[in-house]
Specification:
Length: about 290
């Protein structure tokens, strides 16, 4: 088995709870007595995507919810599935974890996490492959791909072609765009994960709302308001969130450090979870008041 996938079985738990009025399925990985880290997955994902990383953080209690409308969590019934709606929900979950909780977000989850941190003041903020500028503003191949994907989502939603948006070809396209590994076993595993999880959104309405929010939002607009220390972990070959934007995003935070991993794309948590875990452990362990 490739080193990126080899890991012992962590202590896990699954619970369904109501968070700010929203039914939410929450998975917890690690020691229940350890300091909490709330981890938010990206668009069209679920808690499964962050499992390889969570399993490598034994010194933390990693709390990974399925965002409402994705995985096993039903959609919101009282708000849109946009950054503001998710940030309000995430802030409530962060408060439930108590003082001293840190916050992590991947991709679209990085936008939600940054918006949450701007008002909820976590102990620290960790961003994996953060979205530094709106995808709709990107140029070149990335921008063209984003616009094509947007047309597909809008058209399928208008025609109520739910099956089109759950088709495995879209999952395969995501793998081709986001993964850069040349390890055949790891690439095959990533493709299988995308095929299994990419279509687990609740309904087309909530997916389309989240997709629009992901395409038009970025972490940079919230960054100046975040007072917590920030760690940005990015892939040097990320085509979804290119490296040039990462430097600008890091500079927008009052207190942030950017670490780039060569030869890695938009799936740091899949392609390099051990590296990410070491960086996160060192970052959180170096904060004032951290246990030694």
């Amino acid at each position: 088995m490739t080193a990126a996938l080899r890991v012992g079985a962590p202590r896990t738990g699954r619970a369904e709870r109501t968070v700010d009025g929203a039914r939410t399925v929450v998975h917890t990985v690690g020691d229940p007595a350890a300091p909490p880290l709330l981890a938010l997955h990206g668009l069209r994902g679920s808690h499964h995507g962050l499992a390889p990383l969570a399993a490598r953080l034994p010194g933390l209690r990693v709390v990974v919810p399925d965002l409402p409308g994705f995985g096993a969590s039903p959609p919101f019934t009282d708000r849109a599935h946009d950054v503001a709606g998710y940030a309000r929900w995430a802030a409530a979950l962060l408060r439930d974890l108590g003082p001293g909780a840190a916050l992590l977000g991947h991709s679209f989850g990085s936008v939600v996490a940054t918006a949450t941190a701007a008002t909820a003041a976590p102990r620290a903020l960790v961003l994996l492959n953060p979205i530094a500028e709106p995808a709709s503003a990107a140029g070149g191949v990335t921008g063209a791909g984003t616009r094509l994907t947007a047309l597909l989502h809008e058209g399928a939603a208008r025609l109520r072609l739910d099956g089109v948006l759950r088709h495995r070809l879209l999952a395969d396209a995501a793998t081709a765009t986001m993964a850069t590994t040349t390890d055949p076993l790891l690439r095959h595993w990533i493709a299988d994960e995308h095929r299994a999880r990419f279509g687990t959104f609740a309904d087309v309405r909530s997916l389309l709302e989240a997709f629009r929010a992901a395409g038009s939002g970025s972490a940079r607009s919230w960054a100046p308001r975040v007072t917590a220390p920030v760690l940005l972990l990015a892939g040097a070959r990320d085509r979804v969130a290119p490296v040039a934007g990462q430097h600008a995003l890091a500079a927008a935070f009052p207190d942030a450090r950017l670490v780039l991993l060569p030869r890695t794309g938009h799936l740091v948590h899949y392609e390099a979870p051990a590296w990410a875990a070491r960086e996160i452990t060192g970052f959180l362990g170096g904060l004032p008041g951290s246990p030694r």
